[in-house]
């Protein structure tokens, strides 16, 4: 079993089609993308004792909110900690581990629901599930880039699109399963967790069986590597722990963090924001439709923007995100002030597509900067920016809204300042992106040796830079 | 256990692999699109 999972046994034989690898990646990303739909369990889990309404002893929403927060926290931690292991152990081992953790998280949570022990759900979905999210998210990234050196953005965009699309499957499936197991004396959350665990384990294992890594030196027929004159696409690899010593890593970290902060804040508040900015025009039902449409654009943007980046370059793609995002955020208060619902909806659909595009374009950006060899591990470290943005984005939107309302600003205008602040964040992101240059040669690996070792200490070897 | 991939990937394998992930995804997207249409009602 152990050898089956090893990288050496996942090397593709002649004749293997690289188009088998994106579905393998999607098997994992569609499953872990369930995280975006976790909120469908929140309300049912507040009524496990009371059944029809919350009773004394039932869990509160505030307590349940920690489950998702823990999962996202451990996503960032595990992708950063296990990134190098994922890279060196190969995609099959990583996908298999992610499958065990993901399914195990659901099973442990089911036990937690059965015994009404919240700490078991924190441990199950929060910690174990979060580790699965981190390992699973980065597991296919470098493999896809190696199979698609001609279209790395499109390849990683396909996988990361799956993460955005996972909720589309999980949300109706979870609601349907709960309805099947609900009885007048029982809420069917436990059974739903068990079934989801089994189904996701099966899907992810299929992905781990299908996945292959290309043989050393493989390239698609007719592939011509980028011209050596393009300084923004490196042909040299940088060791994972050397990458974090470069300004390029931290500049891209901030670019991602700011782009995600701007998007994640409005994504979580889209329903309330649309109703408060257009009272009487956007009903709760229409707002739910708006959120659904935003989710579709979030998913579609992941594929479209990343694919476009193969043609216009990663840096230019992020320039588009920052400039277009700035214009659109500044337009939102105008749309609200003039009551132009169509303009408001269009602005947010494009904004949210760029939020998704920011996630899916960044692996290829890292590959351009640091080479292919440790791109998965470096990507894992970069995802800490996501964890940070996950805190900042909602905080900025929620607290500014509260501040404005308590200071007498009408609800319809309470988000205006927030929009201008988001636009300001994108200006900073624009500057960070503009400062990204090619990585100095002192960081390049020499054979298997990290640049910091081969060059006898980076600090003393600045002449090579 | 050794991985066996001695022969080339067949079209059937590709169709099965893409169908395995594509069908649930398309169904999910259609369900979401159906809900999203409420915005325009």
Question: Could you walk me through the main structural features you see in this protein, from its secondary elements to its overall organization?
Answer:
- The complex is a heterodimer of chains A (about 475) and B (about 40).
- Chain A has 18 helices and no strands.
- Chain A is mainly alpha-helical.
- Chain A has two domains: about 1-210, Up-down Bundle (Growth Hormone, Chain: A), CATH 1.20.1250; about 240-445, Growth Hormone, Chain: A (Up-down Bundle), CATH 1.20.1250.20.
- In chain A, helix 4 packs parallel to helix 6, helix 11 (about 245-275) packs parallel to helix 16 (about 385-405) and helix 11 runs antiparallel to helix 17.
- With about 40 residues, chain B is mostly helical.
- Chain B has one helix at about 10-35.
- The model of chain B is unreliable at about 1-5 (pLDDT under 50).
- Classes of the chains: A mainly alpha (about 475), B mainly alpha (about 40).
- Chains A and B meet through helix 2, helix 8 and helix 12 of A and helix 1 of B.
The CATH topology of the largest domain in chain A is: Growth Hormone, Chain: A
Q: What is the name of the CATH architecture of the largest domain in chain A?
A: Up-down Bundle
Briefly note the structural class of the backbone of chain A.
mainly alpha
Please report the distance between the alpha carbons of the first and last residues of chain B.
57 Å
What is the overall number of helices of chain B? Answer: 1
Quick description:
The complex is a heterodimer of chains A (465) and B (41). Chain A is mostly helical and 465 residues long. Chain A has helices spanning 2-5, 21-32, 42-45, 61-89, 91-114, 118-138, 141-147, 152-181, 189-210, 240-243, 247-277, 284-312, 314-338, 341-370, 375-382, 384-406, 416-434, 451-454.
């Amino acid at each position: 079993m152990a050898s089956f999972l090893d990288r050496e046994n996942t090397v593709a034989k002649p004749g293997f089609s690289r188009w088998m690898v994106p579905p393998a990646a999607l098997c994992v990303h569609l499953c872990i993308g369930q995280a975006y739909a976790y909120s469908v369990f929140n309300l049912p889990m507040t009524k496990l004792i009371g059944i029809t309404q919350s009773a004394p002893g039932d869990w509160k929403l505030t307590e349940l909110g920690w489950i998702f927060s823990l999962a996202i926290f451990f996503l960032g931690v595990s992708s950063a900690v296990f990134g190098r292991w994922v890279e060196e152990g190969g995609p099959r081992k990583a996908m298999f581990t992610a499958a065990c953790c993901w399914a195990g998280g659901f099973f442990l949570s089911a036990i937690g629901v059965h015994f009404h022990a919240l700490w078991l759900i924190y441990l199950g979905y929060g910690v174990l599930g979060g580790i699965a999210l981190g390992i699973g998210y980065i597991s296919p990234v470098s493999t896809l880039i190696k199979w698609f050196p001609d279209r790395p953005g499109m390849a990683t965009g396909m996988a990361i699109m799956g993460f955005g699309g996972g909720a589309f499957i999980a949300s109706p499936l979870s609601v349907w399963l709960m309805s099947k197991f609900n009885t007048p004396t029982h809420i069917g959350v436990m059974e739903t967790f068990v079934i989801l665990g089994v189904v996701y384990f099966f899907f992810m294992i299929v992905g781990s069986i299908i996945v292959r890594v290309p043989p050393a030196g493989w390239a698609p027929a007719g592939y011509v590597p980028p011209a050596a004159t393009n300084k923004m696409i490196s042909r040299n690899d940088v060791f994972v722990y050397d990458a974090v010593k470069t300004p390029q890593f931290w500049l891209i970290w901030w670019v991602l963090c700011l782009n995600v902060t701007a998007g994640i804040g409005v994504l979580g508040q889209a329903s309330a924001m649309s109703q408060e900015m257009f009272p009487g025009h956007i009903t709760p039902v229409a707002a739910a439709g708006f959120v659904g449409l935003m989710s579709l654009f979030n998913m579609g943007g992941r594929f479209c923007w990343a694919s476009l980046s193969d043609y216009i370059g990663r840096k230019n793609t992020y320039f588009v995100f920052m400039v277009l995002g700035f214009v659109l955020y500044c337009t939102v208060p105008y749309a609200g002030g003039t009551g132009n619902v169509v303009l408001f909806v269009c602005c947010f659909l494009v904004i949210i597509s760029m939020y998704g595009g920011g996630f899916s374009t960044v692996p290829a950006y890292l590959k351009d900067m640091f080479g292919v060899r440790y791109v998965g591990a470096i990507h894992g470290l970069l995802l800490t920016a996501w964890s940070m943005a996950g805190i900042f984005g909602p905080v900025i939107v929620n607290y500014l809204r509260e501040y404005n309302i308590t200071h007498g600003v009408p609800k319809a205008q309470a988000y205006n300042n927030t929009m201008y602040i988001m636009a300001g964040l994108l200006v900073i992101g624009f500057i960070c992106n503009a400062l990204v240059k090619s990585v100095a040669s002192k960081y390049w690996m020499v054979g298997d040796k990290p640049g910091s070792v081969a060059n006898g200490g980076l600090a003393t070897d600045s002449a090579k830079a | 256990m050794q991985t066996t991939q001695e022969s080339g990937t067949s079209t059937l394998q590709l169709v099965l692999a893409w169908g395995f992930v594509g069908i649930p995804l398309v169904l999910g997207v259609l369900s979401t699109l159906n809900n999203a249409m409420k915005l325009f009602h």
